[in-house]
Structures are given as C-alpha cells and as structure tokens.
Amino acid sequence: MRIAVCVKAVPSAGSGARLDSASKRLDRSGDLGLSEYDTHAVEEALRLRGDDGEVVVVSLGPERAADALRKALAMGADRSVLVSDAGFEGADLVLTARALVGALERESPELVLFGQQSPDGNGACLWAAVAEKLRRPVVSQAAELAVEGGALRAKRQTEFGYETLRAPLPAVVAVSEAINEPRYPSLKGIMGAKSKPQEVLAAGDVGGAGDPVTTVLALTPPPARGESRRIEDDGNAAEAIVEFLAEKRLL
Ligand SMILES: Cc1cc2nc3c(=O)[nH]c(=O)nc-3n(C[C@H](O)[C@H](O)[C@H](O)COP(=O)(O)OP(=O)(O)OC[C@H]3O[C@@H](n4cnc5c(N)ncnc54)[C@H](O)[C@@H]3O)c2cc1C
To answer: Which of 21, 69, 186, 227 has a beta carbon 3.0–4.6 Å from 80's, enabling a disulfide?
Structure first.
C-alpha cells in the first residue's frame, strides 16, 4: 500500500514556546525535531504498509527540517519529500495546505496519514483542509485503523466513547496518540536513514506559493501567574491545600 504521512518539524521540547514580537510569529529558531504526535502516524503507516508498499513522509518547512524528517526515515519510512521555499515563509493554514496538497498530488497515495495536532501551532485542523482540497474523505482522532477491500475502517475516540467508521480509499486519516506506541529508531535504522531518498521541492514544484490569507494582528503572552503557593507534601499536603482554597474563598 502506498502511504504518505504528513509530518511537521517543530521546536524541540526543551526550547519552550517563544513569541517573536517583531514578526508576530512563533519563534521557531533553534533545533527542530519530529513532532511526537506525528511519530504515531509514521508508526501506523509502517504497520499498514505491507511487503510491497511504500511510506513517504511529506513536510513543509525550512531546510533544517530535513534533520527531523530523518527520524521518520530511521523509524522505517522509505523516503522523504520536503517542500522548502522562501515563498512559504510565514505560511498560514491555507498556504500550508496548498503546499502539502501540491506535494501529495505528485505521490497519489492511497492513504494520507496525519498526527492529531502540532505542538506549536496546535490547530488540529490541517488534515481537514488537505482532505477538502484533495476532495477525499477524512477521519480524525483514529484510535484504531484497518484497511480491507479498498476501504478503511477506523475506530474514533470521542468524549462519549468510540465510533467505528468505514470510508472508501483514497482517504485522509488523522491518528490519535492512543493508536499505537511508536518505535524508537534502531542504530541500524539511523545509519540507513542517511542513504534513503530525501527530495526537496521548491514552490514551483507544488503549484506555487502566494501570500498568507490570515494576518496575525497581535500576539500576547499569557498574563503573569497570580499569587501561588508551593506546598511540599510532608504528610499534611491535603490539609494545606484545603486551607489555601478556603483562604481564597474557593471552598
Ligand atoms: C499568519 C500566519 C503565519 C504563520 N507563519 C508560520 C511560519 O512561518 N512557520 C510555521 O511553521 N508556521 C507558521 N504558521 C503556522 C502554520 O500556518 C501552521 O503551523 C500550519 O497551518 C499547520 O497548522 P498547525 O501547526 O496548527 O497544525 P495542526 O493542524 O495542529 O497539525 C495537524 C497535523 O498536520 C500535519 N502538519 C502540520 N504542519 C505540517 C507541516 N508544516 N508539514 C507537514 N505536515 C504538517 C501533522 O501531521 C500534524 O500532526 C503561521 C500561521 C499564521 C496564521
């Protein structure tokens, strides 16, 4: 089965979320790593690939995102496609979806997998935009996935329980973190990743860039924390918490 997995290179967890007041964007300088959410999509693709299938990871990002994509190759993906072009700097949801659709149309995958959300943008919606542009069915929050007879069967996690859906292929699926336990790349996988095909596409290869449709008007950090008290548990923590809440008239 031919599967494409859309993955995002995001600031490493240690760097913390920072705002750049000049550009009004998230500051994405520093090391980039493969989004943890997306490792679940890569793992699921590897499980569904089959003996004669192929898993290609597709991403929009700066050139240094290539290092993050190599983690997916080290896990077992067959090749990577990175759309990287100055024309996509500051890309919003619409532009990002357009770039990914341009890359995916060159691949014609039977299944496109996504993680549920990115840890920096946190939109949890890109998969819907891509599915709409590709005119394909979309299933989100998939906690179980199977492919049989030209269709997929997915168990979705909802607030009230699970629902099981069937959709014809080709289709788009965003997987939840509950779907699997992603493997750690082996040393052999890490060494082998370097020699796997890693294609870089320019805007012209995916139908051109353009201007973002959305404009960020303001970025405001969260207000400073109010009065807080750290309670060490010396055996009386519960009483101390109750006392604090009562003091604040919250009980
Ligand atoms: C005006 C504006 C300017 C912006 N400028 C930038 C910028 O300069 N750089 C930047 O990185 N972001 C920028 N963003 C944010 C960018 O638009 C979002 O990151 C993008 O739309 C994806 O949304 P998300 O990160 O919320 O992903 P979500 O919708 O939360 O992600 C869901 C899934 O989509 C996939 N995915 C997400 N992003 C990518 C990607 N880039 N490539 C492949 N798969 C992906 C992953 O599988 C992920 O798990 C900007 C946003 C706005 C509104």
So the answer is: 69
Looking at the DSSP bridge assignments, the partners of residue 60 are: 83
Q: How far apart are CA 170 and CA 174, in angstroms?
A: 14
Residue ranges around ligand 1 (CB below 6 Å): 6-8, 25, 28, 35, 37-38, 41, 59-61, 89-93, 96, 100, 114-118, 121-127, 212, 214, 216
Is there a contact between 109 and 231 (Cβ–Cβ < 8 Å)?
A: no
- Please tell me the distance from the alpha carbon of residue 175 to that of residue 249, in angstroms, as a whole number: 42
- For the stretch 64-120, pLDDT in tens is 999 999 999 999 999 999 999 999 998 999 999 999 999 999 999 999 999 999 998
Q: How far is the CA of 192 from the centre of ligand 1 (A)?
A: 29
Domains and CATH numbers, the chain: 2-206 (3.40.50.620)
Contact call for residues 119 and 10 (beta carbons, < 8 A) = yes
